[in-house]
Amino acid sequence: MDDLFHILGITPKDKTLFQTAITHKSFTNENGGVDNERLEFLGDAVLEFLTTDFLFRTFPNMPEGEMTALRSALVRKESLAEVAQKMELGQYIRLSKGEKSAGGEKKSYILANTLEAILGALFLDGGIPSAQIVVETYLLSRIEEIYEKNLHIGPKNAFQEFAQEKFSITPHYQLLSAEGPDHGKTFTMGVFIGEEKISEGKGSSKQKAESDAAQNALHSIQKKIK
After folding, report:
1. What is the DSSP letter of 154?
2. Looking at the structure, do residues 19 and 76 belong to the same domain, yes or no?
3. Residue (of 221, 212, 210, 223) closest to 171 by Cα position
4. 101 Cβ contact partners less than 8 Å away, ≥ 6 residues apart
5. If I label 134, which of 76, 102, 121, 164 is the partner at 20 to 30 A Cα–Cα?
6. How many helices (H) and strands (E) does the chain have?
7. Contact status, residue 16 vs residue 1, Cβ threshold 8 Å
8. What is the mean pLDDT of residues 8-16?
9. Does the active-site annotation cover 144?
């Protein structure tokens, strides 16, 4: 845990908050205890607030629509997973034996959810300033990269443009599953072109799962092109 605190740049008041933040539900199903889903729920809100506040203050002339698109690019699961990988959070996540053997510490949605849970723990332990340092250091520094790669266009829009150009059809999304308690459900959405399922994605809301599904579909297409 001390290595994790060094990465976060903090001396925590309550270490148990962070132990909970790195505890995946598979671990508690096997060993008991408290998982990180409630902290993830809180961290998601903290992240959205900090990102919105930063964009509002930093870009006083940016239209609302562009701020929304940029915020979505910053906080979507893929972006969070990339940040979590750079922070090497995977090595700290507490997983069940089965999930660990399946490479759970490398799964994008687990990495992203754990990062959100850590932000929730940071907020409870040290308030907004504590969470803000991590968000600005690791996440908001990606704004230039997002502009350069047009990532703020959004995966759903990008995949829709591709599908309409390639197949003259608009993709549609279907709910495949919803697991977990009401306060912390994980949704799985599939993206389809006609009757064919192209990919699926997970998220804490249907909208986030749809975005993840579209991003996975784009990745799949890019691999085939290469």
Report:
1. -
2. yes
3. 210
4. none
5. 102
6. 11, 3
7. no
8. 94
9. no
What are the tokens at 17? 């908050």
Q: What is the chain's mean pLDDT, rounded? A: 90
Cα–Cα distance, 38 to 119 (Å, whole number): 12
Residue 50 and residue 161 in one domain: no
* Mean pLDDT in residue range 85-107: 94
Same domain, 198 and 146: no
The domain total for the chain is: 2
Q: Using the 3D structure, point to which of 151, 177, 204 is the last residue of a domain.
A: 151
Q: Which is it for strands 196-203 and 172-179: parallel, antiparallel or unpaired?
A: unpaired
> Quick one: pLDDT at residue 213?
93
Closest of 177, 184, 190 to residue 39, by C-alpha = 184
At residue 113, the pLDDT reads 95
Instruction: Judge whether residue 118 has pLDDT over 90.
Output: yes
Q: Taking the mean position of all CA atoms in its chain, how far away is CA 225?
A: 26
Say if residue 128 is in the same domain as residue 169: no
Catalytic pick from 35, 37, 40, 44?
44
CA 199/CA 104 separation, integer angstroms: 19
| Catalytic site residue from 78, 99, 116, 125 | 116
Q: At what angle do helices 108-134 and 77-86 cross, to 10 degrees?
A: 70
Active site residue 116: yes
Of 96, 131, 151, the residue at which a domain comes to its end is 151
pLDDT at 226: 47
